[in-house]
Design a protein that fits this description.
mainly alpha
């Protein structure tokens, strides 16, 4: 509490006690933990051991002499450094982004702590994590966990996920094996990629890379939340994450945001990362709830990627008027903050791109083009004022985890009804190709029901603030219409 510096980094182990870190952080100081600040050393050793095992295999097969091996190892020094620094960059970035959301994550973090305790994996007192009473006090004070406390949860989430993945079949999936290659320096990838599948610790390496990269991008409570909401196993969640990441090309998006370091305010970067994270969370839930079949990852990507690219190419013209205005306003605000216009537009379109999943399914089921189903999907958004529905759901209070779950359930229900309505309209006009013609035919057939919904919507607009019960009734009307 006596420190007057803004930032503390621990250059060695145990420079501070955890209680000291928390005390300093609660007064506004920037500090993680010694484990976070010094993780590069452990990471470097990890790479060194696994590289030497791999090079040893190459030597045993006569591909390298000892002299060549020694030079080869020296040549990889710089590359290993970059790999290690990248791991540390994303680990601290994850902690910073979760700090922006602060008290909004507190209930979910508390639930994760309780789950770890119940599983016998965590002793809250030993790790100096706040008690239930302290969490209640933080909630009242609108304070989240401090960075040192979040760092502890980050470590436990990675260890827990690693244990689950290494027992699963996901690490043997041909597509997931790319994580094995990416772990090693470029020189090894170029010269000895054929030896990598014979590495005795290949499954452990794949599990480590998947757990590390996924938790860094999604945060410590992501897997626990997905388990709670869907009942899916951790390896299924990881598989869904990989699908979403690669369908939507999120690695490239993240790289473009990272490239803005020291060019735009960090707060703008965090905002963009959180926006991408929302898409990631919603789309992961979509796969966990709707596509539980065990197709190989590569086959699922082949279904959805082309549709996504078609939808991305038609943005923002395909959007409803309200969505287009919101897209333009968001893109303009980011561009004014220094974000390149193309990236600003891509981030602004994240929410709309989620529709690619439902649009693809409807297009396949109805044997119609993705472009026509996307146009119909967004035309319905405008016709039925579904954007207004979504805004009212987003405005619901989420002061407790149950309120947050209820709001998320309503949001998912609205999305499901958008999909069902698109399907219903396409079915009602099986011979029509033009989305406008499909919509006209459907509206004439269901005019009384549409009038009832419109009357209810207008009445509720005059009422002002809406609660959970009213929105549930509105969604029931949408469901019956679909």
């Amino acid at each position: 509490a006596d420190l007057r510096c803004k930032v503390v980094a621990e250059g060695g182990n145990l420079g501070f006690t955890q209680l000291g870190r928390v005390e300093y952080a609660l007064r506004g100081g920037r500090i993680f933990t010694d484990a976070i600040d010094n993780s590069a050393g452990v990471d470097c050793s990890d790479h060194e051991v696994n590289i030497k095992i791999l090079v040893g295999l190459a030597m045993a097969e006569g591909e390298l002499t000892e002299k060549q091996r020694n030079k080869f190892l020296a040549d990889m020094t710089e590359d290993v450094g970059h790999l290690v620094l990248a791991d540390n960059y994303y680990q601290t970035q994850s902690l910073s982004v979760s700090g922006v959301r602060g008290e909004k994550l507190l209930d979910s973090q508390a639930a994760f702590i309780r789950a770890l305790e119940k599983a016998g994996r965590l002793n809250r007192a030993v790790e100096y994590l706040p008690s239930e009473d302290e969490i209640a006090d933080r909630r009242i004070a609108k304070l989240g966990l401090t960075a040192p406390e979040r760092a502890v949860l980050l470590a436990y989430s990675k260890m827990q996920l690693f244990d689950e993945l290494v027992k699963s079949g996901l690490v043997d999936d041909a597509y997931a094996q790319s994580a094995l290659v990416s772990y090693f320096p470029r020189l090894l990838q170029e010269r000895h990629a054929d030896v990598m599948p014979r590495h005795p610790l290949r499954r452990e390496i794949v599990a480590t890379v998947l757990a590390n990269t996924m938790i860094n991008r999604t945060g410590s409570i992501f897997v626990h939340r997905m388990v709670e909401e869907t009942g899916a196993a951790p390896d299924e969640i990881t598989r869904a994450y990989i699908l979403v990441r690669d369908i939507f090309g999120l690695e490239a998006m993240w790289a473009r945001i990272d490239a803005l370091d020291n060019k735009v305010p960090a707060a703008i970067q965090y905002e963009m990362l959180i926006e991408v994270g929302r898409l990631l969370l919603r789309a992961t839930l979509w796969f966990l709830r709707r596509r539980r079949e065990r197709l190989p990852v590569g086959e699922v990507l082949a279904i959805f990627r082309p549709s996504l690219e078609k939808l991305r190419g038609s943005m923002p013209a395909v959007l409803s008027a309200g969505d287009r205005e919101a897209w333009e306003a968001s893109a303009a605000r980011l561009a004014e903050a220094g974000v390149p216009r193309e990236l600003a537009e891509a981030v602004a379109g994240m929410n709309a791109l989620y529709a690619a999943l439902d649009v693809t399914e409807v297009a396949h089921e109805q044997k119609k083009s993705v472009e026509s189903m996307a146009a119909l999907y967004f035309a319905l958004v405008g016709e039925l004022e579904l954007r207004w529905f979504g805004e009212k759901i987003t405005a619901l209070p989420t002061e407790t985890s149950w309120q947050a779950l209820a709001r998320n359930a309503l949001r998912d229900d609205l999305s499901a009804q958008q999909r069902a309505l698109t399907q219903a309209v396409a079915k009602a006009a099986p011979e029509a190709v033009d989305p406008a013609a499909m919509l006209v035919e459907w509206k004439s057939r269901y005019a009384p029901a549409l009038l009832r919904l419109k009357t209810m919507t207008e009445e509720l607009k005059r009422a002002g603030t809406l609660d959970l019960a009213v929105l549930s009734v509105l969604l029931r009307e949408l469901r019956s219409l679909a």
